[in-house]
Amino acid sequence: MRVSNSRWFLPLLAATSILFFWLGWPVLPFAPLLFLAFVPILIMEQHITPERYRKPGRTLFGWWYLTLLGWNLTTTWWVVNSTMIGGIFANLANALLMCIPLLLFRYTKRRTGPALGYFSFVLYWLTFEHIHLSWDLSWPWLTLGNGFAMFPEWVQWYEWTGVFGGSIWILAGNLLAYFLFWHGKPHFSAVTAVVMLFWIGLPITGSYIRYWSYEEKGPEYEAVVLQPNIDPFTEKFAGTENFIPYEEQVRRFMQQSQTLLGPQTSFLLWPETAIDQAFDERYLNQQPIIRDITSFVNSYPHLSLLTGITSYNVYEKGTPPASARYQEGFGHYDVYNTAYFINGDTDSTYHKSKLVPGPELLPYPQVTRWLSETVFNLGGSAGGFGRQAERTVFYNSQGAGAAPSICYESVYGDFMAEFVRNGANFIFIITNDGWWSNTAGHKQHFHYARLRSVETRRSIARCANTGISGFINQRGDVLQKTRYWEPDVIKGSIRANEVITFYAAYGDYLGRTAAWIAPFLLLAGFVRKRVL
C-alpha cells in the first residue's frame, strides 16, 4: 500500500512539519531543517484533491491550521507566562493569519497553473510577513528570516536584504526540496542531494567570506550595562506583593553601577521601566528622584545615562490623539513607555512606538475609541500607551548617536533602520524579559538583536532588567552576556559606525515589492479560468 493512501499520512505530514519548525527555530541549533519544514505543507496541497476528499478545501484548511498552530505553540508557547488569555489568543490567531497566504497560494495555483502558483507561494508569504510587521496587530517573532538568529555568520548578506532575504531563501528552498524529493511521488537521488546542498551552501559560503573580511568601523566608546534583576511579578511595580520603593530601587541602581563606572565611561544603561513612577513630562527634570539621578550622572565627566521610565503628557488644548486616556478633572493625557536620556544638564525622551497588541496597545484606536474610553472608565489600562511618529536619536557630548530601542521594537529590522537613517551610530536596547520566565522567549529576543547588528552594521549594548544583557559587535558576534535571573553589571566597548548599509538605507524593500505585486497576481487568478 502506498504511504499516501494510509489514514496516517496527513497526521504524519503535520507532525513532520511541526517537528522541523520546532527543531529549526531558535534556540535549538538545527536551522537547516527550516528548508524542509514547508515541504509537508506543500504535499498536503497536492494530496488533498476532490478525488480523495469530499470537501478538499475544508480538509486542507484544517490540516494547514493544525500544522501552523503546532509551529506557533512549540516555539512561542511561553507568551502565556506573561498573560494566559492573551498568550493563548496570540497563538491561535497567529496560526489563523498564517493560513491566509497559503489559501491564496492554493487559489492562484488552481486558477493560473503551477508556474504562477508556486511563485505565488513565496510572494504571498512574503507579503503576509511584510503586512504583519506593519499593522496594529503585529507579531514579528516568527518572521522566517529570524530563524538564523543564532547563526549570523550564515547571513551576513542581511546588510543588503534584511530578514526578508532569509525568508525568501527558506521559502524557495522548500519549493526546491519539494520538486526534488516529492512532486507527486517520493524520489531521491545523489543529484537532488547535491542541488539542495548548493542551494544552502553557496549563500553560507559567501556569508562566511564577508564575515571573515568585515572590519569593525568607528571610534570606540566605553559603556556600562546594569542588569538589576528585580522580579517584575513581586517586587518591581507598585501594588506587587514585595514592592521595593522606587527610591530604594534607584539607590541600588546607583550602587551597582558604581562598581564599574570610571572617568572614561561614556554611557550607562538601565533597563526598560527602571523607574515606573509616572512622571509628568512638563516637569520631568524637576522631580526629586530625577534630580538625584542627574547629580549622580554628572559626577562622572563624560557620562550619559539611558534609562527606562514611565511618563505622561497632558493635552491642555486641541484634539487629543486617539490613544489618549480621559480622566474627569484632569483631561486627556497619554501614558508612555519612555526611554529617558540624561547628558550633562540636558535631557531627552523617546516614546516606545512599536507596542505589544493588547497589553500596550488597543489596535486601531481611531476606530475603537468607544471601547478604549469604556475600558479606561472602568479603571483598565489595556491599550494605554501613546506613541510617536519619528525615531529619536540621542547624542552625547562627543556627538555619538545612540538608537534607544525599547524591548519589542528591536525585533523590527526596518523600524530599527529608521534610527540609523536618522543618525544613530550604535544601538541601545533596554528591555524587561522577566515576564516570560526562564523559557526560550528571552533567549530568542537576545539572539534576534544579533540580526539587527548585521543589517545595520551597528554595535549593540543590550540592557535587561532580567533576561540577557550583553554586547554584540557589528558582525553579530556576542562579545559579553549575562546569565538569566542574576543581578550583574558588565562593561564593554561599542563602536560608532557612520556607514549606512544598503538595507539600512532602503529598509524592507523586498516586502514592499512583494506587497505591490501580490494584488496583480490575485487579479490574474480572478480573470483566468480555472485550470486545476
Distance between the termini: 27 Å
Number of strands: 14
Task: Indicate the radius of gyration in whole angstroms.
Answer: 25 Å
Shape: globular
Helix and strand sequence: HHHHHHHHEHEEHEEEEHEEHEHEEEEHH
For the sheet with most strands, the description reads:
8 strands, mixed
Proportion of beta-strand residues: 15-25%
Mean pLDDT, to the nearest integer, reads: 92
Total number of helices: 15
The secondary structure category is alpha/beta
Oligomer: single chain
Secondary structure: helix percent: 40-55%
- Give the number of domains: 2
Q: Stretches where pLDDT falls below 50 for ≥5 residues?
A: 373-383
What does this structure look like?
The protein is of the alpha/beta class and 532 residues long. Residues 373-383 have low confidence and may be disordered. Strands 1, 2, 3, 4, 5, 6, 7 and 14 form an 8-stranded mixed β-sheet that branches. A 6-stranded mixed β-sheet has the order 8-9-10-11-12-13, with helices on one face. The chain has helices spanning 9-24, 39-47, 56-76, 84-112, 114-132, 158-161, 163-181, 190-213, 246-258, 288-298, 369-377, 413-421, 440-456, 502-506, 509-527, and strands at 220-227, 265-269, 275-280, 304-315, 325-327, 331-343, 346-351, 394-395, 401-406, 426-431, 460-464, 470-472, 478-481, 488-495. It has 2 domains: 3-214 and 509-527; 220-306 and 341-358 and 388-498, Nitrilase/N-carbamoyl-D-aminoacid amidohydrolase (4-Layer Sandwich).
